[in-house]
Amino acid sequence: MSTTKKIAGAALAAALGVTTLSACGGSDDKSAGTTDKTVTLVSHDSFNVTDTVLKEFEQQSGYTVKVLKSGDAGAALNQEILTKGSPRGDVFFGVDNTLLSRALDNGIFTPYEAKGLDAVKPEYVLDKEHRVTPIDSGDICVNYDKAYFADKKITPPQTLDDLVKPEYKDLLVTENAATSSPGLGFLLASVGKYGEDGWKDYWSKLKANGVEVVDGWEQAYNERFSGSAGGKKAKGDRPLVVSYASSPPVEVLYGEPQPAEAPTGVATGTCFRQVEFAGLLKGAKNEAGGKALVDFLISKKFQEDMPLQMFVNPVTKDAALPELFTKHGVVVEKPENVAPETIAKNREQWVKAWTSLVVK
Q1: Which residue of 181, 207, 224, 232 could cross-link 173, Cys pair, CB 3.0 to 4.6 Å?
Q2: What's the rounded Cα separation, in Å, for the pair 167 and 149?
Q3: C-alpha angle 326/139/52, rounded to 5°?
Q4: How far is residue 350 from each of residues 7, 97, 346, 356, measured CA to CA in Å?
Q5: Inter-residue contact 311 to 13 (CB < 8 Å)
């Protein structure tokens, strides 16, 4: 979302002015700032947690948590690679499956099998050495403006194949794959669907069908998309946008007044699944505290708090989704996936080829 690496509806919340956590921990705790009592979480800008949930962890564990937000996930990861062995914190949160191999190849994490890992759904455990622990998942998908398609009496698209059909000409806006996380995810969805030999042909058809490309999610969703609150104000005229499966619940939550139904829908056959991980940083000053923090991130308490704080899905089997998600969200049964090692090997050349084909 925008040009940063933000999962699900977190950036939508930010765009609507929702305050996020910058740092936590009792400032009157005399032990704050010492390596044995303070544990530091390095994260991208979208990390958030309910104050009371974090304070409960601090009281039970005896640690004070500091959150060091470091821009988007790519920028945050770059900083940790540059400071390898002398990390800025104890735990890194926010590396996803599009960047995972880069993080692992640079050896910035210490293996740790978190307590409670058996509750994590096995399909999310992508690193068998447990250098990273799965924390959340979210689906990048095309969203559609329900009112537009109802007024025009056109069935909304549901699959990637649909988007190249004549009835959807000049309706889709997407983000630049070179500058935007959802833009890259949508490119990867096409790679997953059509393979390394077929995705370019698909994008040639999409370009011929009038796809519009903008720099980031903020512009696409809140300016060009006719179905969002921001897009309506900006008089956006594109009823299809690459966003997230969690965007409709966020539109409901922050709607003024709050609508009974989400004004936007999700084309579930267009999705790419992102998974975010946390890992204990190699050289962490507070390794024991870092391990406790990783354990906390997959605890039921945090996993059930996370959906309405970062608008992502829990990865544990026992975590329940809030009613807002179950009522207004969608379940993506078969998202597209590309193996992290395949992404790492080909990401740069795919983005260059996509840029030459679609943008230039």
Answers
A1: 224
A2: 11
A3: 60
A4: 22, 16, 6, 10
A5: yes
Ramachandran area for residue 287 (φ above 0: left; ψ -120 to 50: alpha; else beta): alpha
Distance CA 296, CA 253 (A): 26
d(Cα 338, Cα 192) in Å, to the nearest integer? 6
What gap in Å lies between CA 247 and CA 262, rounded to an integer?
9
Counting as low any pLDDT under 70, the low residues of the chain are 1-35
| 61 C-beta neighbours (distance < 10 Å), count | 17
- Residue 164, pLDDT score: 98
* Peptide bond before residue 257 is cis, with ω within 30 degrees of 0: yes
DSSP state of 331: -
Residue 162 DSSP one-character state? G
Give, in order, the Cα–Cα distances in Å from 300 to each of 39, 149, 295: 20, 39, 10
Question: Which is nearest to 190 in space by CA: 164, 169, 218?
Answer: 164
Query: How much is the pLDDT for 99?
Result: 86
277 three-class SS? strand
The 3-state DSSP composition of the chain as helix, strand, coil percent (nearest 5) reads: 40, 20, 40
pLDDT tens profile 105-155: 999 999 999 999 999 999 999 999 999 999 999 999 999 999 999 999 999
Per residue in 305-314, is it b (16+ CB within 10 Å) or e — as a string?
bbbbbbbbbb
Give the pLDDT confidence score for residue 27 in this predicted structure: 34
Strand, helix or coil at 211? coil
pLDDT the model gives residue 29: 38
Give me the pLDDT at residue 25, please. 42
| Parallel, antiparallel or unpaired: strands 38-43 and 91-96 | parallel
